[in-house]
């Protein structure tokens, strides 16, 4: 199973999500072709209601602690409540260009 699929499955099992997107952005970084080291994760959950972003992110990191200690180098988290997601019209912030070297 790919790392991307592991991330998706672990988050689906551990959290009540109304939306989940896991995108492998490794190709945007200075890594070998086919790498699974940089991911953008968009999560929408009522569990985030009343929580500051740092608490939302900590809840995701707890679920993905094994991946973060292994092959995953970067995890861009975009966590929203359903109302926040609706007000954004279902669009997450775009990832910035890599600052760590050439593509």
Spell out the key features of this protein.
GMP Synthetase, Chain A, domain 3; 103 residues; three-stranded mixed sheet; alpha+beta
Write the layout of secondary structure elements.
Blueprint: H1 3-14, E1 19-24, E2 38-44, H2 53-63, H3 65-69, E3 74-80, H4 82-87
Q: Could you estimate the helical fraction of the residues in percent?
A: 25-40%
Count of all domains: 1
* Number of strand segments: 3
Radius of gyration: 14 Å
User: Averaged pLDDT, please?
Assistant: 90
Q: What is the rounded distance between the termini?
A: 26 Å
Word description of this protein:
This protein has 103 residues and is α+β, with helices and mostly antiparallel strands. It has a single domain, classed as BolA-like (GMP Synthetase, Chain A, domain 3, 2-Layer Sandwich), CATH 3.30.300. 33% of the residues lie in helices and 19% in strands. The chain has 4 helices and 3 strands; from the N terminus they run αββααβα. It has helices at 3-14, 53-63, 65-69, 82-87, and strands at 19-24, 38-44, 74-80. It has a 3-stranded mixed beta sheet. The chain is globular and about 40 Å long.
């Amino acid at each position: 199973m790919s790392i991307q699929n592991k991330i998706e499955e672990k988050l689906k099992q551990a959290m009540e999500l109304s939306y989940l997107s896991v995108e492998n952005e490794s190709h945007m970084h200075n890594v070998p072709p086919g790498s699974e080291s940089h991911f953008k994760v968009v999560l929408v959950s009522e569990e985030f209601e009343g929580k500051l972003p740092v608490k939302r992110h900590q809840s995701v990191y707890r679920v993905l602690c094994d991946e973060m200690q292994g092959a995953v180098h970067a995890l861009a988290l975009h966590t929203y409540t359903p109302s926040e997601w609706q007000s954004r019209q279902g669009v997450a912030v775009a990832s910035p260009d890599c600052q760590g070297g050439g593509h």
